[in-house]
Amino acid sequence: MLTAARLGAAALTAALLAGTAAAPAFADVPSPTATLGAAPLPDGLYGKGDPTYDAVWRQSLALTALSAAKVTPADSAVAWLTGQQCADGGWPSYRADASAACDPVFEDSNATALAVQSLIALGGHQDAVDKGVQWLRTTQNADGSWAYNPGNPGDANSTGLAVNALLAAKVDPATVAKAGKNAFDGLAAFQLGCAAPADRRGAFVYQSAPDGTPAEVNALASGQASLAATGGRLPVAGANRSDAAPKALACADGAATAVPRADSGEAVGAYLAAQLAGGDRHLTLTTPGAPPTPDYTATAWAALGLVQGGHPQQAAAAVDWLAEQGGTWTKGGTDAAATATLVLVAQAAQRDPAAFGGADLVKQLTTLGPAPKAAASAPASASPSAAAKKKDGGISTYWTLGIGLLIGIGGGLVLSLQRKRGPKL
């Protein structure tokens, strides 16, 4: 029988199979709401779907994307996100009653990591950011990793997102440690090194196999962890650039199996570039018992990681594919998380998110939440001094035209009189 914990994982799995969820790692905890869709959506929240498992996730993505697009979100949208933070600094996936005390079992490292990055992008929320970073410090596992929910084994996705948040907060992940293992050590534990087959080196697994058997490469884990491996966070600025392709992991006889920190970003970049080139420009979701399907989320994060790593040319084909397929993933612009992620991808790749694959992603995203305070596309009103200059300039132009017209008329009259008089004798 499916427990409430497994029902949550099953719901996320179904969404990922459909290729529609920009979802974090699965939470093995019961739902914080009794039934799906039982209550109306709160004011200020982006997206129209059930908020139970992804409300803070999609809100954080939306606010980060809008901020990067120079759109000032409504105060209610920001207040909703800050109001979800628990007293200890963490965020849950969603809590319907923000006035009630948080139950730590529902706190979520993925939601917390994205919320921290979002508030940093917005600016002006340093206290909430500091509390969120402290929560990440206290919930780190002894091996340096993070789990979706504290107390569980760590995973690559959650660890990568936590590293992104630390980097956004200007905290060196190498200084965030438990039992002698820092955040980079925790991330490295999920990356395949020289002991793996050559075509898998650099990839990430979701979790290490407990019995020591080789774990399967995971596309979403590789895509999401790549941004952390390359030293990035959201939003990706896209300023790095290298004309060379990412370097595959060099493995000599007797080489250490772990991927050195200095080589981590290039190694996963080489793996992702090869997968995109051989997979019709996208990564693929493979689930036992189900046919392989395109993995939109993994492809988007892979593109972000490649751009951050200085390889936008290797990401370009994936960005093109996302532009072509974006309408399917975002459900015509109605999925807030997917739409926001596409905005972030477009911006990182230096494309126009207002004309990405024939869609205005920024406009689509703004319609999924409260009206923003200010939009980048709105023309700035002229200042009084500028208006006065424009007015003075117009008057000067009219006087110039008038004087020229009078001179022209006068000149014409003189010539006419001369003709009537005939030539001088």
From TrEMBL:
The chain crosses the membrane at residues 398-417. Residues 1-27 form the signal peptide. Residues 60-148 form the Squalene cyclase C-terminal domain. Keywords: Membrane, Metal-binding, Signal, Transmembrane, Transmembrane helix. InterPro entries: SQ_cyclase_C, Terpenoid_cyclase/PrenylTrfase. This is Prenyltransferase/squalene oxidase repeat-containing protein.
